[in-house]
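Thread: quick sanity check before group meeting

JM: Hey all, I'm pulling together slides for Thursday and realized we never actually wrote out the predicted structure for the chain we discussed last week. Dropping the sequence here so it's in one place. If anyone has concerns about the input, flag it before I start.
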Amino acid sequence: MMATQHPLQFDYDTPYNFSSFYEGSNQELIQQLQKCATGNGEQQIFFWGNKGQGKSHLLQACCYSAHQEQRSYFYLPLDANNLPSPKILEDLEKIQLVCIDNIEIISGNKEWELAFFKFYNQHRDLQNQLIMSASKSISALNFLLPDLKTRLSWGLCLKINAFNDEQRIAALTKKAKTMGLEFTPRTANYLLTRCVRDLPSLWNFLDKIDHATLAEQRRPTIPLIRQILQQDQDL
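JM (edit): ok, ran it. Output follows.
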């Protein structure tokens, strides 16, 4: 049964699943996350990568898979500018799958580290599964509690491999398709070579294309992309 605290409601058409994520050269990571989410893999996974590589998508995909298997789950995205009280961890040890996004946010916060350390031990003792993401490796995290840092390395630790240009085009095309936008390889390549190349910026630009196609009832063509780029430059 789903945890009542969970902020997400998953529908069958949710974009946050494994099928809508372009894996590139991250097959092992995807496989391990899928198995863990359904209760058939590692008890703990820590994975890290740069901003915009899909960490939040993957964690929510894990929750969606747990939901499909009727497992209890909880997704907790941490934000340095809006960090909740560590009391949010209370009773989470009973949840079969807990996914924590941006775990590095709590490093250096003694109250949070102590609360997480307590949750971690109780959750692990109950044989429940934990998946965490971060922007850097465990060795680069500066925790006040050495034992906490040690525990984070007890499970499987994997890095998200960045996309090369060919993979970035494939990821862009797949992301666009989930939004109902059909890109030709030529159109996708044009966008990639003329827009900011990091994925968050590309996803933001896809939103602009989506709005433009709806407003003007046009397909996502090179002339339309050129028009949007020009409008951005004029602002």
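AS: nice. Residues 18-159 form a domain with the Rossmann fold fold (CATH 3.40.50.300). The chain has two domains: 18-159, 165-234.
JM: adding both to the slides.
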